[in-house]
Write a structure and sequence with these properties.
The chain has about 375 residues and is an alpha/beta fold. The protein folds into two domains: about 240 residues, Rossmann fold; about 110 residues, 2-Layer Sandwich (Dihydrodipicolinate Reductase, domain 2). The protein is built from eleven helices and 15 strands.
Amino acid sequence: MGTIRIAIAGVGNCASSLVQGLTYYRGANGAKPVPGLMHSGLGGYYVKDLEIACAFEIDRRKVGHDVSEAVFAKPNCTAVFSNVPQLDAPTYMGPILDGYAPHMDKYPEDVRFVPAKEKPVDVAKKLRDHDAHVLINYLPVGSQQATEHYAKACLDAGVAFVNCIPVFIASDPKWGQKFEDKRVPALGDDIKSQVGATIVHRVLTRLFEERGVQITNTYQLNVGGNTDFMNMLDRTRLVSKKISKTEAVQSQMSEPLTDGNIHIGPSDYVPWLKDNKVCFIRIEGKKFGDVPITLEARLSVEDSPNSAGVVIDAVRVAKLALDRGIGGPIASASSYFFKHPPVQYTDSEARRRLEEFIGTNGNHAAGNGAKPKTARAARVTR
C-alpha cells in the first residue's frame, strides 16, 4: 500500500506520544490484535507504514530541530515509553496567530510555551515539498485562526486534514463543502481518547438510556497539569471545547438536558499532575417507580498516550479516503474517533459504519440505518 507521510501542527505532548508510538508499534503486522491499538492493520496499512514528514511549531526549543528531538523538548511532560530514532523530519516555524494564550507569560518557561522569533514558513509549500499526505492538527484549544490557517494550507496542498482539537472544521458545513469541492478528506473535530472522559461518559449515559433510566442531572469535571490545562485557564478559549464535550454526551440522550442540568468541561490546572488527567463523572436519574439513582466515577489516565492510538487509526482512514478519491468530511470515522463530528451516532453504530468504510470502497455519507443526530456547528469567526 505504500507509506503515509504525516505532517504535524503543534509538537506537544500528544505529538510526543504519537511519534513514540510509531516506533513502539512498528512490529505490529496485523496478524493478531495488539494491546494498545484498536486496529493492528487497517485497510492494508500498518503502523510501520506511517512516517513523519515534517512538523510546525512556535516554541523556540523545538523550531529548527528534528521531530525526534522536538517531541522530548520542554514543556512536554508526557510519559516516555520509546526511543525515537532520527527521523529526518524538520520542525518549521508556524504562524502564531491565536495559538498562544498571553496569560501563559506569568508561568515559568519550563512549563509553558516560549514563542520563537523566526518568520513563519509557507505551510502549504512545505507540505508539498515534503510530499505530505495527512496533516494532524494538535494546536492548543482556542486556536481558531491558526487552525483555519492550517486547514486552508491543506486545501491548497491537497493534504488530508485530521483535526484533533475543538475548532469546528469537519463539522462546519462551510468548511466541509470546501474540502469536498477540493476532493480532500477531513476528519474531526476534537479527538476522543481511547478510554477517556468523553467516551466513558457517553457509554454510561447510553447505558442509563437503554436500561430505561431517565437522567436528570450530570457533570464531568477534569483536572490536569500539562500545557493543555494551563492554556484552558483562559476561559474565553473554551467556548467550542464546552460545546464539543457537552454535545458528545447530549447526543446519547433521547431528550437532551437543559443547560442548568448538565456541566461538562475543564475545571482547573494542577501543575504536579503533569500529563495525568483526572476526571470525575456524576450521573443522577430516576429509575423504576421514580426512585432515584446516582452513579459516580473517577478516571485517572496519562492524557496524551490515551489519544495517540486513535489518531493512528484516523490517519490511516484519511489516507484510505485519499486513495479512493473521497473528499470532504468522513462521517463514519469522524463519529467514532471524534467528539464533535458532522453527524453523531451511538458508538456501536459509528463503529459498524467505520468497519464498513474500511472493509469496502466505503460511503462516507450518513447513509441508511439509525437516524443520526447532526452536530450543531459553532459560530466561526473568519
